[in-house]
Amino acid sequence: MKTRDAALHDQLVTTDFRTGTRGFACVTDPECAVCVKPGTEIAFDAPIQFYNPDSIVTIVSGKYTAAVFGQVNKANKMAHHDCLEFPDGSHILLTRLIPGQSAKILQLPATPKTEAEANDQKRVEYAG
Fold it and tell me: Which of 17, 37, 16, 7 shows the shortest CA–CA distance to 105?
């Protein structure tokens, strides 16, 4: 599968990939997964919609149109890590996002100044 790093002002769409996971794709090339670094700010065209964490059939329309890309479950290599962090501190895994939502990269994370900051921005790869 084609991949590339996210760039400032990229136009993205939430996508189901043939690998069985969900994430961001380039609007102009839906077969290209866009790799987003933790700390990247993302704005959606409408309130972010996702499947309820307790039910994969119930769709929730959130109250936020912006979020910060992050990662959770970093110690568990067999878990999904990519998530959106909301202003209230809550988060939702990217695997829960409803496909077809439009988004734009608002701001990339700052260049790390220390090794600890660089480690925080390093993506954990799914091992499943």
Answer: 7
For 6-37, how does the pLDDT look when each residue is reduced to its tens digit (9 = 90+)? 999 999 999 998 888 899 999 999 889 999 99
DSSP 57-84: S-EEE-S-SEEEEEE--TT-TTS--EEE
Q: Residue 36 corresponds to which tokens in the numbers above?
A: 């987003």
What are the domain boundaries of the chain?
2-120
Confidence of residue 45 (pLDDT cuts 50, 70, 90): very high
Whole-prediction pTM = 0.81
CA distance 1 to 4: 10
Residue 58 structure tokens: 């119930």
